[in-house]
Amino acid sequence: FTVLFIYFTCISTVQTSDCLHLREQCINAGNGCESVWNVVEDACNISVLGNRCKAEDTVGCNRIIQVLADEYPEFKSCVCTTDNICSITTLLGKQCGIKKDNISMETKLQWGLSALSKQAYTTNRSCLDVNRECVEDEVCNKQLSLYLKVCSVNKCNVEGCQAAIRFFYGNMPFEVAQMMIFCDCIQHDESCHRAKELLHGKSCAVTVVPPPSCLNVIHMCEENESCRKKYTTFRSKCWRHVTKKCYSDEACLETLIKDDMPCSANADCKAAYISNWGTMLHMECTCQNLPPVEQPLCELFHHMLHSKSCFS
Questions:
Q1: What's this model's pTM, rounded to 2 decimal places?
Q2: What are the start-end ranges of the H helices in the chain?
Q3: Residue-range domain boundaries for the chain
Q4: pLDDT (tens digit, 9 = 90+) per residue, 217-241?
């Protein structure tokens, strides 16, 4: 960070200076922002090349900057959409060079991942097969390597891992993302289950000890602007009955039972569900040890967040 700061001190534009100041505040904030910034550094391939840094994957770099701005709105002024490199140069300074190969990373992403996206989507594909195909694909493997690096069990940082998950699945074509998220394993296939835990971030960002109550998860999400937007979209796209009848009225929700909860299960619903990954909505939660009066609502939330019956 110190070296980069020295390289960027000559940047004179007010907006870039403000963004660099925000970066320093983020690094020192102690609120999880540093973890997301570390993902930005990896995804944007910030490294020293003379007086320049390089960003080989401009689309991916812009997307993780958007993740940063969604989670920490003070960075919104550092995000723009006029061209492929606008957010990068605004946030990092115009001395940050953009490296483009003959076939650039963003072009490959637009074409789709060669090995995975050519296959027709089928439910319950083996997680081991999907993981292997991702590793064999140049673009997917690059994204997966970053994700696994940040979500390492040995040095797990929950906020950083969640940001990496949001970036990873947000960077995948929809068909590939759902193939990974809805993969499955037969009961005794340990290799497959290990691959599933890696793909789904379970070992770092999903399993928390002790698990929070599903009521607390929903309430915490509603207090976070970015999470609240994702939850509202998920509820409207997948659980229209809830949105139509109760919206967020908990007294009304308590009158519903799971059998009254038809799920739309269409492509928009799947996209909204995928968007929840890498947020607190994806964390495992429980309804155990709650007062009896809170059980029905908690179980309703658990059903909405974690029931795969919607996508069977």
A1: 0.72
A2: 2-8, 14-28, 33-43, 58-71, 86-92, 105-111, 114-117, 127-136, 138-150, 158-171, 174-181, 190-200, 214-222, 225-238, 240-245, 250-253, 267-276, 295-306
A3: 17-92, 100-206, 214-306
A4: 999 999 988 899 999 999 889 888 7
